[in-house]
Each structure stands twice: as C-alpha cells, then as structure tokens.
Design a protein that fits this description.
Layout (H helix, E strand, L loop, with lengths): L1 E5 L4 H12 L3 E6 L17 E5 L5 H11 L3 E4 L6 H6 L2 H21 L4 E5 L25 H19 L3 E7 L1 E3 L8 H10 L4 E3 L5 E2 L1 E3 H13 L7 E4 L5 E2 H12 L5 E3 L17 E2 L4 H7 L7 H21 L1
Parallel strand pairs: 1-2, 1-4, 2-3, 4-5, 5-6, 6-11, 7-10, 8-13, 9-14
Antiparallel strand pairs: 9-12
Helix pairs in contact: 1-7, 2-4, 4-5, 6-8, 6-10, 8-10
Length: 324
Amino acid sequence: MNVLITGITGFIGSRLASRLVRDGYNVHGLVRHSSERELSRIRDVISQVHLIEGDLGTFHSIISAVEASEPEIIFHLGALTPVRLSFDDPYPYIATNFEGTVNLVHAILREAPNARLIAASTAEVYGWQDGNRPIAEDAILNPASPYAVTKSAADQYVQMADRVYHLKGTVLRPINSYGRTGEGGFYTEYLISKMLVGETCYVGAPDSIRDYMFAEDHVSSYILAAKLPKAIGQVYNVSPGNPVTNSELAKILTEMTGFKGKIVFGSYPPGYPQRPKSQDPQYLVLDNSKISKELGWKPSHTLQEGLKLTVEMWRSKNSNRRVD
C-alpha cells in the first residue's frame, strides 16, 4: 500500500515512517530542500523510503507529490511547531500550517480522491477553556497563540472538506509528546538534558497542568485511525490521561536522573523565547474517551515508563558522545 507522509523528517513523522516501513508499506515522504540536513532522523529506513522534494506552501509541488506517490493514505504531519516563536513571526505559520493544509486537501481531491487523509492537529487548538476538566472534541476552539490559530484553521478546513467535498479525512488532536533525543528545546527533553549534566533547570510555569504522551503511542494512533474506515470524517483527541503540573514532572525527572542541582521555579531559562503568560492556558488536558471507545486506542506506556525510556535514550546518547 502506498502512503505519503508530510513532515517525514520531523519528530513524529520520522518514527511513523520507520513503523510503516517495518509493517510493509511503500512509504513516500515530502521534504523541503532546506530540510535535507535532517534526514538523519530517518537514516535507518532512508534506503526504503521514496523522498519527494516539495513545499506545502506551493500548490503545484504538492500536486506533483501526490501524483508521483499515488497514495492510498496520506499522513499530514508537516507543520511549523515552535509555539513561542509564532508570536513574533506568525506569517510562516500561516503559509505552512494553514495554506499548506489547504493545498494538500485540494491536491488530494484532484489527484487521489479515494485516498484517506490522517491530519495532525494539536491540543493547542483548544486554548482557553472554562474549568479544570479534560476537554472533549466538541469544545469550542479558543486558540491562544498564532501557531494554534493556524492549526485550528487547518483542522476546521479538513472537517469542512469532509462534508463539502467528500474528502476522506480524519483529524487527530494529540497532546504534548516526548521521546526526542536530539532536541532539548521541549519541556520534558529540556529537563532531562540539563539534569543529566547537572546544569540549573528553569520551570517557567510550575503550576500549569499538562498531559504527556510517549512518541510511540502518538505514532500508533495515526496508524490505527488509518486502518479503520469508521474514523473517516471524525475528530479524535489523542491523550494518555496522565495530567501533571510542570513542577511535578520536574520532581519525577529529578528522581529518575539522580539530579542534585538547582531548579528555579517561576522563571524561564535566560534568553529563552517566552510565551506571553496571559496567553498560556494553565490547564490543557484532553478527554480521550472517544478514541478509546470508537477505535480502541489506548497508550502502551505509562508516564513513568515513557519517561524512563527517554532518560535511558539520553544517557546512551551522552555516553556515545563522550566515547567519540
């Protein structure tokens, strides 16, 4: 079966590609010319993946990519994701996240109308919500950043296309994922990378409550949704249901890493691009009952299990680097 992945060199896209190759799919991946330096993320399967150069913001290149790959399933993960940077420069986010999704939708309708589209949205589309309770899919979207606005618009465009153009789309709204080893700019990986080398850690919003999902569970949700026709036209939250405050997560990782250094609560790292505090939802936890009941999805890793695996990966990486 032919599949096309946008964002194949990204954190989740690369892991999805590896899983699909192992499962016997014929995998194509859309890459920008500027992203070729990131091909190391798919080095284990690159000889088995068909790479197509293109740009989500350019309609004719997306038409060419869909035409060349003849996909039966498209996993749309390509996006600009650093939330904080979107406040200062929103325009690339509009071009990639929203206009890129519009381009992809119409390329599919034109070149592969029978293909399934699994579109990655984000929990960030919910933004501000009343009350501290898990958020269901029917909640009003109140995106709290330029990034989230572009993802909300793309999310809704896919839903509109399902109804109006009979696109066979499914929207997944995942919560925060972790399990990176090469990037220390995301909260969980930031803490692990700093703690393992004994550097001071900063927790900018200690009381904010979030849910955290291990990367492999994130990947499994896309594959499951693509396999089940009942997912067509639906929106699903993807969340393991393990909410913790930022300070609680820091304490868990302190024990796992054996960290003896200093943690500064209530302050971001020096020079770190800050998200305006007035725009940062304090509670962002998703209700996962719909995907659990309708698709049978559930996480394979508890928070403790996933964090231990991530800490072990960082330890191994640091050890290998010292050997080199």
